[in-house]
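Z., the sequence and structure:
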Amino acid sequence: MVHRTVGVFFGSRSVEHDVSIVTAHQTIQALQSAGHTVIPIYITRTGEWYTGEGLFDLKNYQQENIRNVANVEPTHLSPSTRYHGLITPPMAGRFAKSRFQRIDVAFSTIHGTHGEDGTIQGLFEMADIPYVGTGVLASAIANHKAIAKSLLQQAGIPVVEGISFTRYAWLEDPEAILAQLEPLGYPLFIKPATLGSSIGVAPAHDMERLRLHIDIAASLSTEILVEKAITNAVEINCAVMGNYTIEASVLEQPMSTQDFLTYEEKYLRGEGKTAGMKGADRIIPAPISDELTRIIQEYAIRGFKAIRGRGIARIDFLVQKDTHQVYLNEINTMPGSISFYLWKASGKSPIEVVNQLIDIAFEVHAEKRQTTYDYQSKLLELAAQKGIQGVKK
C-alpha cells in the first residue's frame, strides 16, 4: 500500500457540524494507523478554514474560538490545478511568507450542507485533486431527499409516499400546502429535504404538530419533505462501497425507544470517552431472513448505482414487520463513522476501508484524466477580426 498525504476536511457551515468533527477524528485515527500522513483541515461554523497540529485534540473544539488554540492557523485550499494543496496562511504579512502543503488526496468527512451536498466536491474537481467519496452529481442528488426519491422511483426501487415543497411556497400559502398533504393521512413524518442525522425530522399525528414541524423544517432547509409514516416497521441499514463494482455490507437494525431514531440516540448515548462515539444500540447482523437480507442488499447496490454513486454510502431502509415490504428511506453519502462498524462486521478493518476508499479515489481520478477538456477553435480569432457583434451565437 502506497502511503499518501491525506487532507481530511471536516466541520463546515452545517447543523451536522459536531457529527462531522467526530467522524473526522475516527477517520484520522484509521488513516494514521494505516501509515498515511494526515493534514487536518477544519472549517468553522462561520466558514473559516484552519489547519495545524492542535486540530488533532478533540478537547480543543470546546474553545470559543479555534484561532486561540496553539498550533492552529488559517489556511485555504488552492483551486488552481498548479497547486494541489493548502496555502497557509492564505494572506501573509509583510515579514512572513505563506507555506504550501501538498495534498495527494482529499478526504471530506463533512456531513450535510457545504460538504455532503456536492459543493466541496466541486472545489476538489476544480483543483484537480483526487478525492474520496461520491462525485458532485451523486452527492447533490443524495443530499436532496425529494430528488433522490424521484430518481429511485424511476429506477424501480420502492420508496415511501411523500410530497415535497419549498419554504417559499409554505410561507406564501400554507393552507394550499396542507390541502396537498391531506390525502396522505396521519401519522406523517416531516423532514428538511437537505439534512441528515435526523436533525429537524419529526412525526406529526395532528394538524397542530404538522404545522409546527413544517415551520421548524423550513427554518433548516429551503425545501421540505412530508412522508406518510410507515407503521409497524423496523429500520434496516446497509453500507455499500466501490466504483465499477459495488459491494454491500452486512445489515444492521438500529434500536430506538421512540417513533424513529433521533439525533440523541444516534450520537449521544455513550458516557465519558465513548460519548459521541458509541452511537445507537444496534443488532448486527440484522435479525431478518437470508432472503430479505439479499433483497435489501440488492436494493442498496441498485440505489447507489442509480444516483451514480462511488466510494461509500450507508443506505437506510424501512421494513414492515407483517408484510416484509421494503422501502428505501435515505442514501447517506457521508455516513457517520464511515460505517466502520458495518464493514468490521463484514470482515474489513477501518484501515482496509480507508485504504480501499483512497484506491477508488485514484482510480476515479485516473479515469477522469482520459477526458478531453481542452478544445481549441477559431472562435477567438474570428471575434478578434470581426468584433463581438459579428460573431454568430
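The radius of gyration is 23 Å. Residues 161-228 form a domain with the Dna Ligase; domain 1 fold (CATH 3.30.1490.20).

Let me know what you think.
H.
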